[in-house]
Each structure stands twice: as structure tokens, then as C-alpha cells.
């Protein structure tokens, strides 16, 4: 839906006749920038969500029957890299309207912090394990990054893994698994009440994975591979108002971009390589890991502290 406060033709005639240097923003450029940023979110959100629930052990063992029963829980801090190039194209085009309008650009290489709580339990009778994770970026104004924008991000999901090799003194643990993640969030860049650019996304992710790990004394290195597919929707909107000689001119536009599982399925599969190592001291496990989306060159990483039995 497009709502025009004053049409571009009238604005152009008014501004030219008045001798002002204001420029009428190109709506095609603005919308194309937001669509480009939507594609970036479609690729980045699944990578960010899946990296937050990584355990070094390919399989943690059974909950029952087992002595001791195997389970664990903890907290993870990490980062997600987001390319805001499309969003900045929109912001720059809006700022070209002049009239004192100035929405701050988002940093060209934006790294967002993440905080995750997760838990995993071993299987009952059968060899498997299951886990759940909840990730949150609280709603904050990210002025510390040099930009006037707000972001809110929430993810919840779970996974199940089955050991192909349960591992022993010689052999590593090898598992295959599957999982689901749901993510939602908003990002808004603003300049007071005169202009804004906003996106609100909703993403559902399904993935398959394989992982191998081997413990040497108190250290467990691991390596894994995921195949990620997702469906998502991103609702975007932008607005600007400029005051000229007592008059207000501007526009307000909204739209959306979607990705479904049926959209060029093979082209939307995201292969993700992940790995790292953990330090295991008694029941405390500290894990350092990283991930790489090989198709879209998206990196992520985290540091976890868990209690694991």
C-alpha cells in the first residue's frame, strides 16, 4: 500500500518554482534497497539462530538408563554479522530530499551481540539427545555503534540428534540430526519524527546436520555441516517529511518481501560449516565455536559456558 502525502509531480513543481535545492527521492531506489536488505535478513537470520545452540559433543549420551544421567544447560554469548548495504541505499536516497532531513547510516560492517540460554538432555532407552534454545537481543537503541537505530531480535527452537557412532577410546562420536528455529524481530532507523526506515521480519528455519567430535583428556574438538532451508517474510516501511516555507511535503510507503520453501528450493539451501573446541573441567564445559555460510559468506561465532553431566 502506498500513501502519498503530496504527489511527486506537485512536489517537483513546487520545489522548482520556489527555488529550493531539495531533491524528490526515487521511490524505486528506496524500495529496491529495502528488498535487498530483506534478502540479507533472509540469509543472515538462519545462520545467527542456528549458531547459538552448538554443543561440542556430537552426542551427549543417554539420560536413562545411564549412570550418571546425561544432561546439561548454560548460557552462550555470540555475534552475528549483518551487511546493511541495502538499508543504507534507502537511507541515503531519503536523505537526498534535503530540508534538514538526516537519517544516520547504519555501520557498513554491523556486528550484533547475541545472548542465548539453552539445555540438552540425553535420550531415554534409545540413543539420542534433544535440545532447546532461546536467543534474545533486547530492544535497545544502538547508539554505541554510531547509528540512530533500534533493533529487537528473538529466536526459539529445538533439535534432536541420533548417534551414528557412540564413540569410545579410539573412535569419535558421530551424529546426524534435524532441527527447527523460529525467529522474529524489527530494525528501525530514524531521524526524530521527520523520517524513518523500518523492517519487521518473521523467519521459520528447518535444517539437517551431521557432526563429529572426539575428546582428548579435557579438550573436545568438533566439526559439523548443516543444510539450512527457510521461509520468511519481511514487512518494510519508510517515511519522510520536510518543511518548506510553512508547508510539509513527503511520502509514506510500505511493502513486503517473502521467501517460501518452494522458491527455487535448490538455490535457497544454505550450506553451513561449523566447528570449534571445548574445555571440560569436571562438570563445567566452556565451548568456543564459529560458523560459515559457504554460499553467502556469512560468519558467526560464540562462547558458551555450561554445566554438563
Secondary-structure topology with pairs:
Layout lengths: L1 E3 L3 H11 L8 H25 L19 E12 L2 H11 L14 E13 L6 E13 L7 E17 L7 E19 L3 E19 L5 E26 L2 E13 L5 H4 L1 E12 L2 E10 L4 E11 L1
Antiparallel strand pairs: 1-9, 2-3, 2-12, 3-4, 4-5, 5-6, 6-7, 7-8, 8-9, 8-10, 10-11, 11-12
Helix pairs in contact: 2-3
Description:
By secondary structure, this protein is an alpha+beta fold. It is 17% helix and 54% strand. It has a ten-stranded antiparallel beta barrel. A hairpin with a 2-residue loop joins β8 (219-244) and β9. α2 (27-51) packs antiparallel against α3 (85-95). The longest helix is centred in the N-terminal third of the chain and has 25 residues, at 27-51. The protein is elongated.
State the gist of this model.
The chain is of the alpha+beta class and 309 residues long. It is 17% helix and 54% strand.
Helix content: 10-25%
Portion of residues in beta strands equals over 45%
Widest sheet: strand ordering: 2-3-4-5-6-7-8-10-11-12
Average pLDDT over all residues:
81
Q: How do the helices and strands follow one another from N- to C-terminus?
A: EHHEHEEEEEEEHEEE
The assigned structural class equals: alpha+beta
Computed CA radius of gyration, to the nearest angstrom:
24 Å
The biggest sheet, with number of strands, parallel, antiparallel or mixed sense and barrel status, is: 10 strands, antiparallel, barrel
Kindly report how far apart the N and C termini lie. 55 Å
Q: What's the β-strand tally?
A: 12
| Quaternary organization | single chain
Number of H- or I-type helical stretches: 4
Rough shape?
A: elongated
- Low-pLDDT residue spans: 1-21
Amino acid at each position: 500500500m502506498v500513501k502519498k502525502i503530496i504527489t511527486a509531480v506537485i512536489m517537483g513543481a513546487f520545489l522548482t518554482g520556489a527555488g529550493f535545492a531539495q531533491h524528490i527521492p526515487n521511490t524505486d531506489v528506496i524500495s529496491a534497497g529495502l528488498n535487498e536488505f530483506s534478502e540479507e535478513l533472509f540469509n543472515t537470520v538462519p545462520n545467527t539462530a542456528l549458531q547459538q545452540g552448538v554443543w561440542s559433543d556430537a552426542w551427549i549420551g543417554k539420560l536413562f538408563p545411564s549412570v550418571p544421567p546425561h544432561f546439561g544447560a548454560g548460557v552462550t554469548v555470540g555475534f552475528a554479522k549483518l551487511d546493511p548495504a541495502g538499508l543504507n541505499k534507502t537511507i541515503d536516497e531519503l536523505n537526498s530530499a534535503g530540508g534538514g532531513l538526516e537519517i544516520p547510516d547504519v555501520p557498513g560492517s554491523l556486528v550484533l551481540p547475541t545472548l542465548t540460554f539453552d539445555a540438552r538432555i540425553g535420550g531415554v532407552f534409545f540413543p539420542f539427545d534433544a535440545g532447546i534454545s532461546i536467543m534474545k537481543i533486547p530492544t535497545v537503541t544502538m547508539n554505541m555503534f554510531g547509528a540512530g537505530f533500534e533493533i529487537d531480535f528473538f529466536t526459539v527452537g529445538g533439535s534432536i540428534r541420533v548417534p551414528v557412532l557412540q564413540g569410545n577410546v579410539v573412535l569419535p562420536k558421530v551424529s546426524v540430526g534435524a532441527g527447527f528455529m523460529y525467529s522474529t524481530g524489527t530494525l528501525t532507523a530514524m531521524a526524530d519524527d521527520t523520517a524513518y526506515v523500518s523492517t519487521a521480519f518473521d523467519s521459520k528455519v528447518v535444517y539437517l546436520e551431521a557432526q563429529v567430535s572426539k575428546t582428548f583428556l579435557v579438550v573436545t574438538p568438533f566439526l559439523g555441516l548443516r543444510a539450512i532451508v527457510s521461509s520468511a517474510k519481511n514487512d518494510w516501511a519508510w517515511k519522510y517529511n520536510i518543511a518548506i516555507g510553512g508547508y510539509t511535503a513527503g511520502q509514506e510507503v510500505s511493502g513486503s518481501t517473502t521467501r517460501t520453501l518452494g522458491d527455487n528450493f535448490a538455490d535457497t539451501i544454505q550450506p553451513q560449516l561449523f566447528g570449534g573446541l571445548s574445555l571440560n573441567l569436571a562438570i563445567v564445559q566452556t565451548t568456543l565455536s564459529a560458523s560459515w555460510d559457504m554460499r553467502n559468506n556469512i560468519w558467526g561465532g560464540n562462547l558458551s559456558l555450561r554445566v554438563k553431566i
